[in-house]
Every structure is written in structure tokens, then in C-alpha cells.
Amino acid sequence: MTVRPETGRRCVFIDFDGTFADHGIAPGAHGEAVRRARENGHVVLLCTGRPASIVAPEVAALFDGVVTSAGAHVRVGEEVLRDDRFPEDLARRTTELLLEARAVFALEAPEAMYCTPGLAESIREHVRAAEAPASGSIGRGPQDILDAVRTPDDLPERSFAKVSVWESPVPVEQVAAQLGEAIGALPNSISADGLHSGELHLAAIDKADGVRQVAAHLGFGIEATVGIGDGMNDVGMLRATGTAVGIEGAAPAVLEAATFVVPGPSGHGIVAAFERLGMI
Hints:
- The chain is of the alpha/beta class.
- The protein has two domains: 5-83 and 206-276, Rossmann fold (3-Layer(aba) Sandwich); 88-116 and 151-202, Hypothetical Protein, Haloacid Dehalogenase-like Hydrolase, Chain: A, domain 2 (2-Layer Sandwich).
- 32% of the residues lie in helices and 24% in strands.
- The protein is built from ten helices and 14 strands.
- The strands form two sheets. An eight-stranded mixed sheet has the order 5-4-3-2-1-12-13-14.
- Helix 1 runs parallel beside helix 10 and helix 4 (117-129) packs antiparallel against helix 5 (142-148).
- The longest helix has 13 residues, at 88-100.
- The two termini are 25 Å apart.
């Protein structure tokens, strides 16, 4: 039987960075809102661009499941529904191209973050500089990333779902173009010294794929689904769900896809969204 919104039950997909948490640390009020929503019969999943390896166990435990690596990896309960990765030859070419460009990058996999030594040291510096999480908050910020970092000698042989490029003299769009149509690019910023950052991902995969797969698996009609997010990689998810919730200050494309808008983590936007939807 397909679950419709008139039953009152909803299946919710929440982005992590900038939506559920700021800099990897979520307010306790967001954790409590998820707990209450689930007690009331709703299904709530994390839907993030992060790989599962850098989602803190205490964060993952709040949810009924996780859609990670921007849709490439999907888990509901203890069942893994999807684990898509770069094909072996394409993965090797991608890694070798980035190494030749002297980029600082990480290969994101569900089991680990495979990094260049330069990125590993940069993350360690972030951890040393980071303030201690506030009492009652959830997650440990950069420490959650550092715990997943591995620096193998055979980096081009590693299996991964997505690439995070922290610093590159070559724009990520140019790297993607060299690799072919199978690879998509999501550029971030350009630093003062001209270095580029962003992500490389399988072009055929989006968070929206995870939404549709989970909804079908659990028997929810799309009209009973809710997406909450703030980033450009959330646009597909927001367009795919029955109700789309954007975050104040998000990019125009995110706000255009949103049914309504709530504050970010510091304003406890997840609480506001759940209250407006009658979930808590």
C-alpha cells in the first residue's frame, strides 16, 4: 500500500551541512525534533553530500536511514539499498589527473576518506583551531572528518563514490570535461591565490535518486515526502519531493524550488519546519 499525505505520515529527507548542522555540529533542538517526529510515526532520513564515513555515529543514530554521497549510497535501517561508485578505470583516471594537477583532494567512500597528505594536514589544522562543541549539541565538527581520513600510498587504486577538491590550480569543471560526460562538477569558490574547489561526482546520480528509491522501498507516495535543504546539490531533492523546504539565505535556485522557507541551524529551522507541517 502506498502511503499518502492524508494519512498524516510523512517521509522526510534532511540535508546536513547548512540545514541540520553548521560546520558539522547540530543543535540539540534538531535532534529532539527528529526524535519526536519519529515517535509520532514519521520516517526521517539524513540526505547529505557527505560520505557515510564522515557522518558521526551519534548523528546517524538519530535517523531511520541515510542517503549519503549525494545519492550514491543509501541505507534504510541496517539494509544498504545502493552503493554506487566510480567505475574502476574512471576512478583511476580521475585520481591520476588530480595528482598530476597537484590538487589537494579527498576520495569519498562510505568506509573512509582517502586523502592526499596535504589535505590530511589541513584537516588536522582545522581540528586544532576549532572551538569545542557547545553543551547539548550533536557532532564534533572537523574531528568527524579527521576520524575517517586515510592516506594510502596506492591512492589511484581506491574505490570511491565522489571527490571533494579542496584546492586545485585547475577548475573542477575543466577536470570533469577532461574525464567525459559521465562526470559532473559542482564548483565551490576560488581563493585569493587563484585556487579552485568543488566536487566531482557521477553525473547520473543525484540526491533525488535516493529520495525516489527510499520512498518506493518504504511505500510512500512522492506527495507524502518532504525535502529540506540549502545547497545547490539539494535542488534535485527539493524538486523531487512533495513538499520542499528551503533555508533562509540559500541560493535563488534553492528558494525557487521551495514550498516555504525556514531559518538555518542557529534558528532551529528543522523545529520550525516540523511544527509547520504538523509533525511535532
